Amino acid sequence: MFDIKIIGGSIVDGDGVEAYEANIAIKDGIIVEVGDCTGDAANTIDAGGAIVTPGFIDLHTHYDGQISWDEEMKPSINHGVTTIVMGNCGVGFAPCRKTDHEKLIKLMEGVEDIPGTALAEGLTWDWESFPQYMDALDAIPNTLDFLAMVPHDPLRVFVMGDRAVFNEQATKADIKAMHDLTSEALAAGAVGFSTGRSDAHRSADGEWTPTSEAHPDELAGIAKAFNGFDYGVLHAVNDFDQERPGDQFEQEFDILETYFRAAPGHKASMTWMQRDLVPDHWKKIMKRAEDLQKDGVDLRLQAAPRGIGLFLGLQSTFHPLMAFPSYIEIADLSFEERVARLSDPILKEKMLSETPIKLAGTGTSVPPMTDIMIAMTEQIAGKMFKLSPDGSGKVDYEQGYVSSAAAEAERKGVSVWSVLYDWMLEDDGKMLIYFRSIIIRI
Known about the structure:
The structure is a single chain. The chain is of the alpha/beta class. It folds into 3 domains: 2-52, Urease, subunit C, domain 1, CATH 2.30.40; 56-303, TIM Barrel (Alpha-Beta Barrel); 310-439, no CATH class. It is 33% helix and 19% strand. It is built from 15 helices and 16 strands. It has a 7-stranded parallel sheet. The longest helix is centred in the middle third of the chain and has 16 residues, at 172-187.
């Protein structure tokens, strides 16, 4: 007698073989047979016409706040995900003192564009240490399994307080404290540790993330906390100072290598991306990773299943018109008022005759990458598309050049800016433009 039998489904088991039809029998939470599965079951599920697969693991998420109030963790659950990994990029909410709640909310808001108001209202904050955070999550219902990494930014703030800014180096005592807290978290079940070194990551106040320029000694000191444990992954995200003068790639990768080597025998993981500004960096990352693997460092590269991009529009945080002086004059109006004003062809002509100004700088959450992207709009318009090209609401992430803003401008004999301007006003100003900004070619 089986507990559950899934019959008639098309099985894709992840081993690379072609899909095949079979039944699946489950007893005591374990798959005990794949095949005919003759015999009765307490519950039979007819999967005819459906695909039956193992659960998907979402390796890179930022549910660190949402998990405390949303047991389903949408939208991952809608895509067949059964396990999520959070704490990526070095941002999160534990450990955290009561005095630093707002600081960490602003950090997550700026880095991941998660509304601070939602975090402020939803976070329960019934924890201070990382083990207490995990206990708090265990105490509430969770539809998905989850793995939590210790994020570097809150750890640094917890230990260093107001000194935890990007240009302040940690003392030996600070590093020892971060090492011990990481060890404590690993003992409590943390799956790893993550750090972020991206110039594009800023707090909502425009400040660099606390760990963006952490010294190699700090990273290595924390990584040594893994020694003695037979589990634990070191994670990093790095854009290799691409927004700063000169090529800092080798220097930055040397820092990561010091970090990864400090915990021999443990796996390491880092994001693997190609950007327009540095189109060959992905090859350099692959070469350095392969060299480390040959030397016994188990470094794995994370590549997204589709191009990572931005949604641009009048209701979004960023859009192509935001740096034009005429737009800045109406930026504080309501959405409806902005749409009405932008619909005036006289304003369009005036705005598109202007030169965009720089928006990034001290006191603003706008990252330098935004200024670079706006300055390069005509060059990158071949990667800008209507998110729903036919207006049906059906999203298409894999459009070709022919659907791009650049191609549309060529067909109409107008500027790219004119096309983007008109696109954003479609659907009563709610049209989203998908900018496929980061991609891996293999």
